[in-house]
Amino acid sequence: MQKKKNVGKVSWFNIDNYKDCESFTASDWSNEILQRILMHHHCLNDCTYFDEQEISSIDLKDGLDQIESIKKFGLFKNSSLYKAVGDEPKILFLLKKQKKSAIYLDDITEFEAYEFFHASPNKEQIQFDMDLLLSNLVSFERNEKLESLFKQYQSPFSATTNKDFDYGARFLQVNLESSDECLKRSFEKWLKTQRKNSKFTSENIRESKLNSWDGAKLLAYWDICTICEIEKIKIGLEAIGDLIFRKEFSEKTKKSADKSDINLQQKMQRVIVKKAREMISLETLEILYAQGEAEK
Questions:
Q1: Which of 72, 85, 124, 154 is the most exposed place for a label (fewest CB within 10 A)?
Q2: Residue 92 in contact with residue 34, Cβ under 8 Å?
């Protein structure tokens, strides 16, 4: 006999609110993931995504508003809250600063250029050395001491800023007097060299994987788990599985209720939990955002 699953405390959940996931682009997925990471951080602040920090009353209210949006709409894309945000560049900039990396190919702003120097613990020594070198720019090659000092500052800046941890940031000079063909060939050669010892992905997230996220109902699973955690509601994997896969495990397809319960529990433990953790992550967000920007 099938065990009764008590899901009354999540009566707000409606799997039909997630049906638009089947046509999501990379940008759509990145926006949904971004909002959920922020909601999790504002409401739980448990170091899952960022270091623990004091959450302002405004941020907490934003997080609670996001919960209500999920309960009503499921997808932020369908909510007035999401449409009113319009602050993705600022949010992504803050995410970028958390990881000290560029999320997508872009210019280095004047702010960032000054920040490199401002944040350096050696800025007084750097200022002294640069004044010395620039004042002797023409004649320093005849001075071994100055020549040695100049060579000291010739390492790629990426290697300096990422000395202890490699977060993927790389900075290049681009000479626009070169032809597009020459620049593309040079960049491909440079990229191939950089990728040899890189831990970062060299590929986009394929459409087949995006489709698998929809098929596995990962956003729906994550929403139920996270909102229940925030609201201190206990709910088991079977109950969550029953909510999000009820149609797939309907009476028409069941050979026996007990067997269905076992299959559902196995599916949740072996597939859904792991995939959801991989999807709702800063690493996935970075890839999807860059991918979405490139596809525009």
A1: 154
A2: yes
> To the nearest whole number, what is the mean pLDDT of the chain?
79
**Stated pTM of the model:** 0.65
d(CA 82, CA 32): 9
For residues 101 and 97, what is the distance between their CA atoms, to the nearest angstrom? 7
45-61: pLDDT as tens digits? 888 887 777 888 988 99
HSE toward the beta carbon, residue 251, CA cutoff 13 A: 1
**Rounded Cα distance, 174 and 190, in Å:** 12
**Are residues 276 and 33 in contact, defined by beta-carbon separation less than 8 angstroms?**
no
- Rounded alpha-carbon distances, angstroms, from residue 205 to 6, 188, 194, 199, 262: 37, 20, 20, 16, 31
* Dist CA 288 CA 88 (whole Å): 13
Nearest to 263 by CA among 238, 236, 244, 239: 238
